[in-house]
Fold this sequence. Notes:
- By secondary structure, the protein is mainly alpha-helical.
- The chain has a domain at 7-27 and 42-108: Serine Threonine Protein Phosphatase 5, Tetratricopeptide repeat (Alpha Horseshoe), CATH 1.25.40.
- The chain has 10 helices and no strands.
- The radius of gyration is 22 Å and the shape is elongated.
- Mean pLDDT is 87; it is low at 4-8 and 14-33.
Amino acid sequence: MRRLWLLFCLALAVALAVALPAWAHDGHGDEDIGFFEEGESNSDYFLRKSDEAFHLGDYERAVQLHRARVAIDPEAIDSWGGGAWLLWSMGRSDEAAEFIERGLKTNPDNWEMWDEAGEHYDFQKRLARAEECYKRAVELLPPDEPSQMLRRRLAHAADKAGDFQTAVETWRGLVRDFPDEAVNRNNLRRVENLMDELAAERARAAGAR
């Protein structure tokens, strides 16, 4: 069944590659959509054309090109994220989330896909899901990859989602691993102070009963 699905995706992408140049000449856009540049892969072609469509303000076509790209190159993480962002920007939040979740299902062990999903849910204000995605990205991150910025995104997402324990633990880890970074120290102090204030409020509320 998976093989049939892959064959279908490949056939779809090839059909789009053939049809899109003619489609552009048929009044869909002022510029010639063009053919492959020398040495350009299928994946790079769709990325270039989606970027051109975006800069022309043709977001629907840009989304279609991102969809075509991930059909032939499922590990094209930037197209999963870019397509989802475009859908969200056009007011199609549910469709955007469905697209990003397809990317996660297709790339379940790719930390960059989880990071991309975290950023997507962050600007959708789906904060708990953003935290989940960042957390999985951190878990999958290879040891030789820089981790500081990703861990900061996790800490901020946890903070905004109200998961202060994860936030403070993440900032403490960052302070330990990057002791010269004032940003990490300042955020740790901020979250610790917030937790102290919340604990004091709960104590006052309990005492008033």
